Amino acid sequence: MALFIGVIIALGWAWHYWYGGGYGIIGIAAIFAIVMSLTGYYGGDKIAIAAAGAHPVKKSDNPYLYRLIENLCITAGLPLPKIYIIPDQSINAFATGRDPKHASIAVSEGALKYLENEELEGVLAHELSHIKNFDIRLLTIVIVCIGLITLLADFFLRARLFGIGGSRRDESGGNAGAILVIVGLVLAILAPLFARLIQFAISRQREYLADADGAMLTRYPEGLAAALEKIKTQAKPLARVNRATAHLYISNPWANFGKKISHAFSTHPPIEERIKKLREMA
After folding, report:
1. I need a surface site. Which of 55, 241, 246, 268 has the fewest CB within 10 A?
2. What angle do CA 33, 38, 43 make, to 5 degrees?
3. Are the C-beta atoms of 224 and 119 separated by less than 8 Å?
4. Annotated catalytic residue within 127, 207, 272, 280
5. Residue 27: which residues within 8 A CB-CB, separation 6 or more?
6. In this predicted model, what pLDDT tens digit does every residue of 176-193 receive, in sequence order?
């Protein structure tokens, strides 16, 4: 969060240097980002569930899944979240919601079909740990910061492209002024990338934590490790997923398909490393 604040301040300086008196626009951008973030905070879970095409499940619809989650919630001391099934044969799951009292958990049909009881329990314990640790709230805050940084950088670059402003550059003159202008432009270009990398780093750390807490909840790390091995070797990705919600899933929906994703740009740690750490806990 400190890094995000630093990047936002640096972007504000670059904007102010180039345009002079540009803080009013930054304030407008901040207000806009806050309004959007509140919408995401209170309705983000519904958006994520709709994006996955998941449908709600009652106890009578799938008593096996319902009881697994219910037992884990009792053990973890959590209220029962809303339960959804994703109509997809790929193995995956995610949790969403702003706090344990307003949480949802979605499991794919593939996870119910291909995972053994202990493996599915490990996956569910992982997702419930995300809920217990308020990870979804944390990632919501991070996404807000990324949105604000990207918005500011976009304003800066668009205005520069059309030759608007530049009064401070004219006043300073000389090589020093030119260098500062170049630094400001580079910062505006790279700021969204830096923000995204910070998001990935935070997301990966929360995945490791959820793995560990989930293993402690079930007292059987091998269950989640075996599930991750099946996820690693599955043949098809999820049919309905986008980059805005990819970080919510227990495993990167695209990691094993098509072009390989660099670890630096992945929302999740390498599955091999997660399996290794889990088996070291056994």
Report:
1. 55
2. 125
3. yes
4. 127
5. none
6. 556 656 666 676 677 667
In a 3-state reduction of DSSP, which class is residue 19? helix
**Burial category of 171 from C-beta neighbours within 10 Å (exposed 0-12, middle 13-18, buried 19 and up):** exposed
Cβ atoms 207, 274 nearer than 8 A: yes
Query: So what's the pLDDT on residue 130?
Result: 94
Q: Of 41 and 260, which is predicted with more confidence?
A: 41
Length of the chain as a residue count: 282
C-alpha to C-alpha distance for 25 and 254, rounded to whole angstroms: 37
Q: Tokens 């205005």: give the residue.
A: 159
Q: What is the pTM of this model?
A: 0.77
Rg, the chain, Cα only? 22
Verify whether residue 127 is a known catalytic residue.
yes
Distance CA 32, CA 28 (A): 6
Q: Report which secondary-structure segment, H or E, holds 53.
A: none
Spatial separation of the C-alpha atoms in residues 135 and 226, rounded to whole Å: 24
Domain that holds residue 10: 2-281
- Kindly give the pairing relationship between strand 103-108 and strand 82-86: parallel
Phi, psi of 103, rounded to the nearest 5 degrees: -115, 155
Identify any residues that bridge with 229 across adjacent strands, giving them in sequence order: none
Helices (H) and strands (E) in the chain, counts: 10, 4
174 by Cβ neighbours in 10 Å (0-12 / 13-18 / 19+) ranks as: exposed
pLDDT in tens, 66-117: 999 999 999 999 999 999 999 999 999 999 988 999 999 999 999 999 999 9
What is the side-by-side strand order in the sheet with 82-86?
55-56, 82-86, 103-108, 93-97
CA angle 38, 41, 42 (to 5 degrees): 90
